[in-house]
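Extended Data, record TRAP transporter small permease
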Amino acid sequence: MRRILAIVEGLSKAGALLSVLAMSAIVLLILVEIFVRAVFDSSTQVASEYSGYLMVALCLLGFAYTFHEKAFIRIGLLLPRLSKAWNRRFEIVAGLFGLAITGYALTYAVSMTYESWALGMQADTMAETPFWIPQLAVPLGLALLCLQLAAFVADRLLKRDDS
């Protein structure tokens, strides 16, 4: 089981790396846009559109790693007051609840991306980007978060109350 948890952690780190690459691409796009405007008094016509797509990818692909590193916003009013046993039980319930919500969102994200591909939907911009390409980040990021949430619950189930 520990091997599976390590694989999920590796996938979360890969998502974080893709998130970093998306942020780097946004910075590069903006710098190119600034240069083209300053030097050629023109525009790339795609910097704003692609920066938006990459921002969605940046967020969603980083969610699993953020959760793993306990960097999501947490409200610690109840858990510090509970015993370790009740704390673990509460985390299991919360993890299962989060997994259910994320899984539900994942099913719709997959459906949305598939429909965009099947219908040949594309952006009404100069680039005419097929929507399914940037939309892939949504189900991918949610799938990574589902895996991380499942690993979280499994880890809490494996822990004993005295540890």
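Summary. The chain is about 75% helix and 0% strand.
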